[in-house]
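Below is how a single chain appears once it has passed through the pipeline. First comes the sequence as given, then the structure the pipeline wrote out for it. We keep one example in the README because the format questions we get most often are answered faster by looking than by reading.
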Amino acid sequence: MNDNNSYKYLYLIVGRSGTGKSSLVSHFCSLHNTTELKSYTTRKRRTPTEDTHIFIDNEEYVKRFSGLEASQVAAFCEFDGNFYFSTKKQLNNNLFYVIDVSGIKTLQTLSLKNFKKGICIIEIKAPFFTRLKRMIYRDGLIKGIKRMIAEGKNFSGLEKIPRITLNSVDNFNQNFDNFENIIFENEIGNYENSCLRKAQIDYGK
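Resulting structure:
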């Protein structure tokens, strides 16, 4: 049994590749007995043990996605030739959702009258060369650079979305402390009006 239901919000985590967003979410979940929404994707695993999504092939994608009623789909996007989607049921059952801007825009158009929680958006940022170093380490030079270039259009419009921004540094413990503080302060109501929907908060500057 996890502790997701003790939190008031679903946290949408957005950030470019190499910002460390998945590492922060994974560490929080392991420390606090919470879970991250694992969206369905047709992308191949980066490693044999990768467990960040529910990995399906194109045939299963067509079967699953076409079998869903439109009212059941929470978010959908295509990136780098791969499809990603999640369901409304998954939204209610998790604390975090690592998502891109198109996915957030999809959520904003939904009728979430049966959704149990508020929604808080946190953007994770990191300097370009920090991200590049991480991407080269993870994917290799060519593939890492290609991914960074390809994802650019997926962040169009983010500047117009009210969110909290965590400015990542080269110190995971410091980044995690800031991330954890954002969650806990928001849960006890230190952010007026659900994560200051009309403003932007910068952490880590």
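Helices lie at 21-32, 58-66, 88-92, 101-108, 128-139, 141-150, 172-187, 192-196.

See the next section for the split statistics.
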